[in-house]
Amino acid sequence: MNNFVPTKEDIQLIVNQIKYLTTDPICIMEVCGTHTMCIFKHGIRSLLPDNLELLSGPGCPVCVTPQSDLDRFILASRQKNVIIASFGDLFRVPANHSTLLNERSKGHDIRVVYSPMDALILAQENPKQTVIFLAVGFETTSPAVAATIIMAQSQNIKNFCILSAHRRVIPALELLMQHPETRIDGFLLPGHVSTIIGETAYAHIPSQYGTGGVIAGFEAFDILYAIHCLILQHKASKPSIENAYPRAVHKQGNVKAKAIMKQVFTITDAIWRGIGTIANSGLVLKNQYASFDANNRFDLEIDEAVDPKGCQCGEILMGLIKPSECRLFGKTCTPQHPVGPCMVSSEGTCAAYYRYFINQIQ
Fold first, then answer.
1. Residue 1: predicted pLDDT
2. What pLDDT is attached to residue 251?
3. Could you give the domains of the chain?
4. Closest Cα to residue 146, out of 286, 279, 249?
5. What is the end-to-end Cα distance of the chain in Å, rounded?
6. Which stretches of the chain drop beneath a pLDDT of 70?
7. Contact, 102 vs 353, CB < 8 A?
8. Please, are residues 338 and 311 in contact by the beta-carbon 8 Å criterion?
9. What is the DSSP letter of 304?
């Protein structure tokens, strides 16, 4: 797979193999939000047999960010002499009473950045203001945040801090497999996260939970090949972890990135939107880096956060329902007027369904 460039004939061949092998119903969850968008973009669902179901999982970092964190982001934006630095996906996600976009329209200084290092440069350029970076993401982005914290400390940049909403993927998968309503026969494992944590991070899953997984890339053939592998596992009743993305993912992952994460962050329990608290699924700054935690610099205590009435993002993220089964989908919740984050993020399942399926659903 490293140097293989598939042709249309190769794609048709793998599709034919999938159809031939799928004699029994099988349900596969794509964990990663980018996979969800790629599956829609390439029209992969239309190529698969009817008894093969694809479910979207909790792999969109903005979507799993709980209402409490969103409310805290809004409160942080209202502090004096503060610049909020954020990825663009967060701007339109509704907190309880506002959005970052609304707060910017009121005159609060909220800016889009493309990396945490951009936020650190912003702090260097604005020494009289404190820059708060909204650190949202899985293991894909947390090493870059950790490296930025280390640099800020080494350069004695004191007007930079973060609000960590980082989450870890594997504890969420473990929770899904223990849920009584779970009907997942295999996981399409996230390519980006796996470049950091590596193939071995998933090694315990087949033996402990009886569910296999295949790490996949993001081209059509990558995804179809991974699905093919999962079908073979299912038919043989031999769940395992396979790496179908060896050009980017190594057995041990990115050792240096993991070491930087471990140096800066400590693992903690964390709340996931609509799911609840998942043990050991969050990352917070260690004591030696506590001065870079915005919670220690500002009063960011919030009222009890309440998810929007009727929003079923939690059930969607767990693969228990499809977006079209949410009573708000395409009615009161649209990309123009989103109720929940799954309709906002570029990796959100609801946004993908709305973009590609809304005409078929209505």
1. 56
2. 97
3. 65-168+253-296 (3.40.50.11740)
4. 286
5. 40
6. 1-3, 358-362
7. no
8. no
9. P
